[in-house]
Amino acid sequence: MPAPLASPAGICVSVACENVSRALAVAKQSESHADVIEIRLDSLSRPEIEPFVKNLAKPLLFTNRPEWEGGSFKGPEAERIGLLLQAVQHDCALVDLELKTAPELRAELLDVLLKHPQTGLITSWHDFSGTPSNDELGEILLQQMESGAHIGKIVTTANDYKDVLRILNLQADAAESNFPLIAFCMGAIGKISRLATTNLGGYMTYAAPDGGDETAPGQMKVSALRAMLKSLAGEA
User: Among the options 33, 58, 90, 153, which is catalytic?
Assistant: First the structure.
């Protein structure tokens, strides 16, 4: 059983592979650098939960991202959420559910989470083309806080430095409400936000495994990101 999840969580390594054995191997290679390991169920041709829960020591986050939110899952929504329900029933550390998911499916997941308090819910929102205005971002954050989730995730695409500043500034709003928030920007311009966010109150940041591919534009390899964070902290 994975160790209890600390807060803030630090670095989450996102693992996206076509088969379970490869995903498990990549995840194992990442454990020395990772605080959390995300298993992208939508990338697996035959998704499973149990092999990861049984064989990995780090806290696990299960995500089943649909095509309409930049992922690979193409099936019915009930089937997609069903895999997340299985992950909760295995007492994983975290599951990720998109804010745009139908309210009745979110309610179903929240009901199961009540019986499995060791699992936290991340409600996520992504923009792969740009970054909304301050008012729009504030409304998204408010919806996340009211959704029943334990943690929010707002990830946008940076087209200039102002986008980066708007996203990072969300941490101040989240802190006022004592709401853990993951917030950074994708893309080359947004890379700096992936590094800065955890030092500015962010719950965690995401990295690519050293032995695997990135799951989002601008994602850095975990060993490089870990080294940079140590350097900022003044650690050897």
Answer: 153
Q: Is the pLDDT of residue 4 over 60?
A: no
- Report the run of H or E that residue 53 belongs to, with start and end: helix 50-55
pTM: 0.94
Spatial neighbors of 74 by CB under 8 A, at least 6 apart, are 66, 67
pLDDT, one tens digit per residue, over 76-121 is 999 999 999 999 999 999 999 999 999 999 999 999 999 999 999 9
Catalytic residue among 126, 150, 162, 191: 126
- pLDDT tens, 9-43? 799 999 999 999 999 999 999 999 999 999 999 99
Burial of 104 (0-12, 13-18, 19+ CB in 10 A): exposed
Q: Is 100 a catalytic residue?
A: no
Within 10 A of 11 (CB to CB), how many other CB atoms are there? 21
**Judging by DSSP bridges, how do beta strands 36-40 and 60-63 pair with one another?**
parallel
The residue written with tokens 């995840």 in the block is 27
Please report, for the chain, how many H helices and E strands are present, in that order.
Answer: 8, 8
- The verdict on whether 221 is a catalytic residue reads no
DSSP three-state, residue 18: coil
What DSSP element (H or E) covers 113?
A: helix 103-114
List C-alpha distances in Å: 57 to 26, 66, 83.
Answer: 13, 27, 21
